[in-house]
Recover the amino acids of this structure.
């Protein structure tokens, strides 16, 4: 790890459960370099994910746009995976590292990441062992010089020498889908909140925030919930479709009511609700 940071210290054990799924018979095949994500407690397999049978053209996908975002409540505590303690860098200001990047895709598409968001393999995101969530990093493929900017919202990869686990879209843009891994350089992009952002947070003014409540495969159920929630909460609720998934969202919600609304949603059973802007 980069010399800017002290060695990781033994910490209280906390296993993060992130986007686990029932393995298919193909996924249950024994391989020398694979682990079982179910028994390991999350999205931590070392087996390389497979690309879709028909690879989509993702040239239109844009880099993540770095911005100031408060760290999420979920996924930012020190944790333990397979007996190894990991420290979350709460106050990191600068960070660079080099090593192997890997990627993950269809097996975990639609499941929750370590900070409670829904993993979308077609967006520019990534997993890192130590950076606070969310963070933004620039990733450079040292074999071909291609660069991307991704938003880190997950934990991993837990494999010797690998420094970042990229979404399918990010791996596509870096030209590393076929090789599975690539030597990369990663650089943290850290932005402080602007004076205007601080003022808006204090006054509750601005354009408001949108909360994503869940993603399900039933469009009918998602629309039924949207109608019900709009009446109960007094804010507009909508359904967005991404492939086979229907995302239930609410907002915009005024800044002075966002936290209270999120807390109420969590208490009402939407435990994975989170702000998407």
């Amino acid at each position: 790890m980069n010399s800017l940071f002290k060695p990781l210290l033994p910490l209280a054990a906390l296993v993060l459960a992130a986007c686990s799924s029932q393995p298919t018979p193909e996924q249950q095949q024994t391989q020398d370099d694979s682990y079982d994500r179910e028994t390991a407690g999350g999205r931590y397999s070392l087996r390389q994910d497979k690309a879709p049978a028909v690879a989509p053209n993702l040239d239109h996908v844009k880099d993540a746009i770095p911005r100031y975002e408060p760290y999420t409540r979920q996924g930012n505590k020190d944790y333990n995976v397979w007996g190894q303690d990991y420290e979350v860098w709460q106050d990191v200001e600068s960070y660079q590292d080099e090593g192997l990047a890997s990627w993950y895709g269809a097996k975990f598409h639609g499941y929750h990441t370590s900070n409670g968001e829904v993993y979308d393999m077609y967006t520019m995101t990534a997993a890192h062992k130590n950076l606070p969530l969310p963070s933004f990093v620039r990733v450079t493929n040292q074999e071909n010089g291609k660069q991307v900017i991704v938003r880190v919202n997950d934990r991993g990869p837990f494999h010797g020498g690998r420094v970042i686990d990229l979404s399918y879209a990010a791996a596509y843009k870096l030209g590393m889908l076929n090789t599975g891994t690539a030597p990369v350089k990663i650089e943290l992009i850290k932005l402080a909140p602007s004076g205007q952002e601080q003022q808006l947070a204090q006054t509750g003014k601005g354009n408001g925030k949108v909360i994503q409540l869940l993603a399900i495969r039933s469009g009918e159920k998602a629309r039924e919930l949207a109608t019900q929630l709009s009446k109960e909460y007094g804010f507009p609720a909508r359904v967005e479709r991404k492939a086979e998934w229907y995302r239930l969202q609410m907002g915009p919600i005024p800044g002075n009511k966002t936290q209270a609304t999120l807390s109420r949603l969590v208490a009402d059973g939407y435990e994975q609700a989170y702000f998407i802007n």
